[in-house]
Design a protein that fits this description.
Layout: H1 3-61, H2 63-74, H3 79-91, H4 93-103, H5 106-145, H6 160-192, H7 197-222, H8 227-231, E1 235-238, H9 246-261, H10 265-268, H11 279-284, E2 286-289
Antiparallel strand pairs: 1-2
Helix pairs in contact: 5-6, 6-7, 7-9
Length: 290
């Protein structure tokens, strides 16, 4: 028999016997006053927790801890440690989640929209003021040449500069849409077969004319203003203030295009007409007004 194993066995037997004796001692207490003992234990545990919380709060509120933290924060930190901490934070997935959460928050989106809207409104107002000033100056010059009385500044109708800027904005928007559509059509045509350069140029010219006619006819008749006119705060209406129809809008565009071709004669009339009407306005009974 190994004496070391026998000694370890005695210890194990003693521990088991002690545990069994403890159960025998506690069992009567549990039978007689088990509920009361449990309540006393719960109360003691709650009291200990309260004391621990109070002690923790007292430690955290102590001025000594604040001074220790200040000294620790003011102590110089090696650059290598700082770089390592920064790299660790930037490389952690938590920082990505924080950025996504901040970027997707309604407050950030509202701020971005508000800033964008404010900038667009400010630019639009500035553009309206500048074009209106050019309108007045060009009209005074033209009326002085033709010996006509100059109207007061800031007339109630859109002048030549205002209309021209609005028209250029519309052409830019239309050209962007036409380029995208033309690229798609060109891709389809290339898949179907070869098309000569002359045929392609003719198709593009016809397509551009129809697209411009549809663009201006739709916006003039549906909303009274194109996106360009909306930026400049102008709209096309009948002389009595009513909305123009699609037929009148289409005729107005055709005459406007013809006025461009004939040495801008149809547009120069805007500078001397009392209501700043061009040839296309006179013939279709329309005006451009805020």
């Amino acid at each position: 028999m190994n004496e070391r194993d026998f000694s370890v066995g005695l210890v194990v037997v003693g521990v088991r016997a002690g545990m069994a004796a403890g159960r025998l001692v506690v069992f009567p207490l549990r039978v007689i006053a088990g509920g009361r003992v449990a309540r006393d234990g719960a109360q003691a545990r709650a009291f200990a927790l309260r004391r621990a919380e109070s002690a923790t709060a007292a430690v955290l509120a102590a001025p000594e801890l604040e001074r220790v933290l200040d000294r620790a924060l003011e102590a110089p930190v090696p650059d290598a440690v700082v770089r390592k901490l920064v790299d660790h934070v930037l490389a952690s997935p938590e920082i990505d989640r924080v950025i996504e959460h901040v970027a997707a928050s309604p407050a950030v989106r509202a701020a971005v929209i508000q800033q964008s809207t404010g900038f667009a409104d400010e630019l639009s107002v500035r553009l309206r003021l500048d074009t209106a000033r050019v309108d007045d100056g060009a009209e005074r010059l033209a009326r002085s040449v033709f010996r006509r009385p100059a109207p007061g500044p800031g007339g109630a109708y859109g002048g030549l500069a205002t209309r021209s800027v609005a028209f250029l904005l519309d052409l830019m928007l239309l050209a962007l849409a036409f380029i995208v559509a033309g690229a798609l059509v060109g891709l389809v045509v290339s898949l179907v077969g070869d098309v000569s350069g002359g045929t392609l140029a003719a198709l593009l010219g016809i397509g551009w004319t129809l697209a411009a006619l549809a663009y201006f006819t739709f916006f003039w008749s549906a909303a009274g203003q194109t996106p360009g006119l909306r930026v400049l705060g102008q709209r096309v209406v009948r002389e009595d203030g009513g909305r123009i129809g699609a037929g009148r809008a289409a005729i107005r565009f055709v005459i406007l295009t013809f006025g461009f071709v004939v040495l801008f004669a149809g547009l120069l009339l805007i500078l001397v007409d009392d209501r700043r009407r061009g040839l296309h306005d006179v013939l279709t009974g329309t005006v451009v007004t805020p």
